[in-house]
Request: fold
Amino acid sequence: MSIIVDRFEKIKSNIKYNPAKIIAVSKTYTLDYIKPLIDHGHVHFGENKVQEADSKWSVFKNKNINIQLHMIGKLQSNKAKKAVELFDYIHSVDNEKLALTLSKCEKAINRKLKYFIQVNVGMEKHKSGIPINQLDQFYNYCLKEINLDVIGLMAIPPNDADVEKHFKYLYETNLSLGLEELSMGMSADYMCALKYKSTFIRIGSAIFGKRD
Ligand SMILES: *Cc1c(COP(=O)(O)O)cnc(C)c1O
Reply:
């Protein structure tokens, strides 16, 4: 068996009793390199750059319509159109301008995506994500004013000892908004995220190896 598939199966065995799905984060890796996991039947893949994802996936995805592509990186409004054409999920909705642009692009090409609102749980200045104190208002805007199909919250917590606190916060907030999906947990912390009922863990290096 391919080492990639081997690593993937080990992670999967850790979540056997939990409905969480694994997003295999294939950023920086070529389609050839990740092919064993596709051939293994895995469908959820994550990318963080529109242009890279487009050149890597667009032709392949047209022929393999079961593939589900997740945009997990910072998204600029001027790339929204391409993103709506290519992706099935966007995890990084974090401001009104972007949200409005996405909803217009959906209408223009008659395609609906599923969205996560990214929350800046650590209130870090350099990190994207909607500030915690604006989340309720922003969620209502997405839901009621522009009709985006928001399915859950997403966060990249600060890399510190408090990661569990942030996962717990996101889990409770998600629940209080009545949302069903939760995008949290990466290679280093997914076990903790599973404890707080993450439904999409985003795993890159633990499957594909360290990136350059
Ligand atoms: C790269 C990336 C991941 C995967 O990170 P690993 O530590 O390699 O598992 C998850 N989420 C986001 C938003 C990323 O950019």
In short: The chain has a mean pLDDT of 96. Residues 185 and 191 are 7 Å apart (CA to CA). The two ends are 24 Å apart (CA to CA). The longest strand covers residues 21-25.
